[in-house]
Design a protein that fits this description.
This protein has 146 residues and is mainly α. It is 67% helix and 12% strand. A 3-stranded antiparallel sheet has the order 1-3-2. It starts with 9 loop residues before the first helix and ends with a helix.
Length: 146
């Protein structure tokens, strides 16, 4: 029976989220010219917010594999956006710290993010934006426990 309501199932939900994410990433890449993706920017943001962190701490905070963090931090180091320092308590660990150049890139990224926020979310009220974030957070927290 077709009552005009859109059927909500996991596949439609995932597809809709994927379309939103794809649009957002494509738009980000067209606006931000430093050749850094969203995740490296988030790593810079975490280092600015919390100070020096070890790779394992970054991986845990961002729910990424240690290998992914190694790849991201290598790229950021090569671009001279972060520095590395050995962990005095462990020969295998490295502390990462954001440099001034990283802070400048992060500032530029935040300006672009503000523009994108206005552009992408203008169709939603402030309350709808808060609800959307709360829903995504709730779902992500549920899966993080699994």
């Amino acid at each position: 029976m077709d009552d005009g309501k859109q059927e909500v199932d996991l596949f439609h939900f995932m597809h809709t989220m994927d379309l939103f994410n794809s649009y957002s990433v494509r738009r980000w890449n067209s606006m931000f010219q430093s050749n850094l993706g969203i995740t490296p920017i988030i790593v810079l943001s975490e280092l600015r917010k919390f100070g020096p962190l070890r790779g394992v701490e970054l991986a845990k905070k961002l729910e990424l594999t240690p290998g992914a963090i190694t790849n991201i931090t290598n790229k950021l180091y090569e671009k001279d956006l972060i520095s590395r320092a050995p962990d005095p308590n462990s020969r295998r660990s490295i502390y990462y710290t954001i440099k001034q150049e990283g802070l400048e890139i992060l500032r530029e990224a935040k300006e672009i993010a503000e523009k994108m926020n206005i552009e992408i979310l203008q169709v939603l009220t402030e309350e709808e934006q808060k609800q959307m974030l709360a829903i995504y957070t709730k779902v992500n927290e549920y899966f993080a426990k699994k």
